[in-house]
Automatic annotation (TrEMBL), chains A, B, C, D:
Residues 144-289 form the GFO/IDH/MocA-like oxidoreductase domain. GO terms for molecular function: nucleotide binding; oxidoreductase activity. This is Putative dehydrogenase. Signal peptide: none annotated. It comes from Saliterribacillus persicus. The keyword Oxidoreductase applies. Residues 9-130 form the Gfo/Idh/MocA-like oxidoreductase N-terminal domain.
Length: 388, 388, 388, 388
């Protein structure tokens, strides 16, 4: 409940495209659903294009806008800097924000390189600010519930983790060369954009990966040069073509510290799959299946159910007992994608209020980056790479 | 986009439970997602319990609260009165609001009786105000898309409409005697609470019903007397029991003007089903299936697909081309229950801005009530009842 | 195992179309999978068309064929007469067979009228022969398993039985006027052909129905006059048209002795559904869902599962512990439609070997017919009909 | 139709466990459903255990039995030798049969080593006999239909092939050390037993694999010494333990000649999955999904479907137009696992009748073995292995 003594937390957001919309919506709805210790105030949104950022400011409900992020990073009236810009800009902004003593939120992947990610982590640690890397899928209620079942020992030792993140938005050869397809801006393709999410879910649910062998592929090597939009719905019209410098698809085999046998695939060429982010876990006592396209559901199997009555249960995680969903609607009334960000930021702000560092944070961002790096190296060198 | 000349629309909401939360969230998020001609201002929320309504006011973001709805109905600074109180109070408030010249939103069912519903309709018509009855499931994007397919002739003549609305929240005999189980407050049980939604979907998608034969049942006739909460999650502790005066389950057969053969069932005793609101339409050219628990999806079948390739297509209605969803996230990123209210109110406010009466309105509320009435009469008299 | 002392049971089959194929396959495979006390010997198949019946004899593995059923009914070397002819011929043949002292198998529905069905039942009882009415869906392993769960009290008092049998094979107006569409041959349309199966499942799983109210409809009233084939894949070419004298669709509401609230729908106009024979049962302790198109699976829900872990379990009934399936393949290797007849006949022959009358028998056939009759009467007279 | 001039094909079957049952059932049912040029005569079944083989002979309908396969291989009255014994015996029997001029059927995998497989292939080629390796899943109607769609260009260039074959029958650590868990008898574990099926489906649908990198794991390294049963349902009781010498799980990444990006996983530790043999194909024009647990269905997606109407179609491949299913039941009446063997042998016998070599044959067996070999080598040497 928004009490009289409730404190504010003042936010500057750098960038305003797809992720900017998701984050600003989360700030808007967070205090509506949850009793928050800190109520977000949307102070300023930053973008290079004045027309665009002005429109975003009005729509998203920020008090003001700026075109130069450096101007806002030092402002006294900002507590949190939220970075939703293309990947190649994360490091510079995040480090500057940390040095200015701001808590820092950064979209994933944390950086283009492990080195940058580590510098970012060092900066937030040195400056004693809280940090968040937005691996939002951890915060789907069904995924949190999966974690709870695993922690309670209901699944037992995990034999298998099997993740697929399948999209198809660039199957059309005329889809333009957006920033997500350029290595110098995005770092990698399917790997860092969606594979990184599967890696985070694996780390969250199963633990650390110790080695990988991988394969990457770019099916369409040249594309029309289009506008640098946010990347998921751009339409190319130019006749000029440019080189695609990232992977369209990646797959890798992984071993975990836990002895788990892991398989991963991430692709933007899985025709028919718009956003099929799914995993299956098989353990000695049970199994779990989840799929983002039916994000409210989880399928759970218990080996100890009576003979003849064993089967995957389809559980709609919308009951009061399920994580977060008590704050919403009666059982059976589903929630959508945007709620993952509400939960992610709820957790982060509670951490700030209680002076605790929550997860996923920059350390998670670094560890994820190390795996991304190893996967890419493995594909290039065609050999297993150990993760240290 | 919130432009400089954007006008405001000032809202008073009477009641603040389950539906109050859904409506106030819709007001909050509407301008975030959509370019609205009128931006809602949440002026005042009304409730009899001062502590409760104060808490609601803060949480939901209203400027103020009141404990007497009569005080707000006449206020100059109110454009819309939104009534989310228990059913037996709808008529009095709505008529008063209409007579005060306010646009009126009323939750469904519109009233306890056809007579009340008609008086309400007459009042809004006489006073020239716009009116909305909140049959929100029409505004699921997948349902709007179903309507579009039907309108375009893609399904052809409709042979069958088959609706089930299955819940199980009162299967436990110790679930208390909440207001939804008392005829003098709610009008009816499963019939008016959830069956009414199926009827509205039928009218929206297929057209008018001409006659019905029905059966109603109350499986558990006495329940512990509990608190008058919003009704979906109350827990009874009292040892005293009171009589359940509404139906636990209802089913009816219906004929439509279109010649369609209709079957309906609504129940709160369908163990295992939290909120399974579903329908299937079979027509000469195709078929449609939809289910609220997977509300973003629609299954569509075309009789003219090539032999061997005929099958229900599972379409995730989250693409730019689907109704409303272009305002949200990239394809494959689902939305939830609360969005139905955003769309419902978006449509209503656009109507007000453009001086057009939208649907579902009080006329729909009356027609729905006439059918509810006929269904109940048919069950009582054990005979077919014609709908005039 | 076929031991040295294994006895034979000698079969004459009257008719050889769709059901003849299903029955003769069952005779063929029964001793392969099961240790049978009586091994079927296929003595003779009967049909009026000599060319057709000769072809059937060779294909199905009968020793001989005949064109006049009267010639075989009295033969000393026949133990069982299996009647798979169109419905209007059942009574005469079955009564003659019973009077000749043969055990009698009759396809469903047992007869065209309750009177005929009762005469048939009287004849088998008087002559002390065993009898079977082929409501084969009882013998799907998953359905038998459902029955077992109900008998063990795992579902508790049954509140709801909800059955749909949806087909679409006559949606095309040019589908010809086959015998299944003529009342004098088939008795009724969707009602007796497929609705009768739902009624049998209801009686098997829930118990007796006490009253019904119904609605029937013939969407396409005239069709091309085609050949009198077995009816499911005939193609009409004639320009002459004849009247469809049976129902295309039927729906009814039913009350059971058990207090269960029943809804039924059977139709041949459910575009997109080839053979969707399904039911859902909701009880005080649990729920069951089943669908013939996924006949090996059953979905089971237990109300007493721990909070948060409640959900329908998808059980693939192919394990050793499930009814009949131990005789087949390892778990997860599904069986198909034809196995229902193997189990049905296995049970019947075991009954004969042990001098026990099994189910479903002519008594079930009569009771089913009484319900069919009541449903039709209710539709004609537009009122509730009690079942005595 | 079994015509007067129909010829016979006389079969000797070596072995009689799980696969023996599947094959002998296929011989039994083949002429019932299909018009065959050669009608199988089951002459003799061979097994070392006299009691067991005698029982099998009677149950499966063979004319006689033998305990020494060498005695039957040379018999003049045998046309086909069908080898369903454990893998380590395939080579010797098959070569002897070929040299005796018999057509040879061998269960998969063809042999324990590539060398053996090649010797077998050389033997059948040299002796001019027809040969079959029983990769039966090719002959699921839905899989044949998938092949047809691919051949017709409906899927376009194939970007992805993604196969999982998931079982869980040995998750229990007390499951005994059956022959399938001993390398000297079975050759490998999940790899050769089930992974080999995925490889065959990949070769059938997509083409040849050019290189692989893999990972194998044995989760439970010692098991109770049990009886050498057929392996899928044995129960161990011994307290003595022996070493598991095969893989419990294997995964590999693969590149195809076609440029397709392939991922494979086969495991017996996928708790909750009894026999989940599935694949997904994503191509430039469409996509296909299939899963053996719902073997009659195929999901097909077409990229060129109108915008908004794109989605996977669930096609029940039981219509007359679908491969093989016209021989069975009306649309919507599903078939089961055993039918795959009927189709496989139907095709083989038609080949013999027409003097054509059909697929999958020993050449397919050799190519499959080369891939199995490469996968195992890759896992052992932790590097990519090229397939020559």
């Amino acid at each position: 409940m928004v009490g009289v003594n409730q404190k504010k937390i003042r936010v500057a957001m750098i960038g305003y495209q797809f992720m900017g919309k998701a984050h600003s919506h989360a700030y808007r709805d967070l205090p509506f659903y949850f009793d928050v210790p800190l109520k977000p105030e949307l102070k300023v949104v930053v973008g290079r294009n004045e027309e665009g950022v002005k429109e975003a400011q009005e729509k998203m409900g920020f008090e003001s806008y700026e075109t130069d992020w450096r101007k806002v990073i030092e402002r006294d009236d900002i507590d949190v800097v939220d970075i939703v810009t293309p990947n190649h800009t994360h490091a510079e902004i995040a480090i500057a924000a940390a040095e200015a003593g701001k808590h820092v939120i950064t979209e994933k992947p944390l950086a283009l390189t492990v080195e940058d990610a580590k510098r970012m982590h060092a900066a937030v640690e040195k400056n004693g600010v809280k940090h968040l890397t937005c691996y939002n899928y951890r915060y789907v209620p069904a995924v949190q519930f999966a974690k709870k079942l695993i922690m309670e020992g209901k699944i037992g030792k995990i034999y298998h983790f099997r993740a697929n993140y399948l999209q198809d938005f660039i199957v059309d050869p005329n889809f333009p060369l957006v920033w997500r397809l350029k290595k110098d801006v995005s770092g990698s393709g399917a790997l860092g954009d969606i594979g990184a999410h599967s890696i985070d879910l694996a780390r969250f649910l199963v633990g650390e990966i110790t080695e990988v062998t991988s394969m990457m592929q770019t099916f369409i090597k040249e594309r029309p040069i289009g506008e640098m939009t946010s990347g998921l719905s751009a339409k190319g019209s130019a006749t000029e073509k440019g080189e695609v410098t990232v992977d369209d698809a990646v797959a890798f085999l992984a071993r975990f510290e836990s002895g788990t046998f892991g398989t991963f695939e991430a692709t933007r060429f899985a025709t028919g799959n718009r956003n099929k982010n799914k995993f299956e876990i098989n353990g000695e006592k049970g199994a779990i299946r989840w799929d983002m396209e039916n994000m409210n559901n989880i399928e759970v199997y218990f080996h100890d159910d009576p003979e003849g009555l064993q089967g995957f249960r389809l559980i709609n995680c919308t009951e009061e007992i399920h994580p977060y969903t008590g704050a919403y609607w009666p059982a059976g009334h589903i929630i959508g994608y945007e709620h993952t960000f509400i939960h992610l930021i709820d957790e982060f702000f509670r951490g700030i209020a209680g002076d605790k560092q929550t997860s996923p944070n920059f350390d998670d961002g670094v560890k994820n980056q190390i795996i991304l790096d190893a996967v890419e190296k493995s594909a290039n060198e065609k050999r297993w790479i150990e993760i240290k």
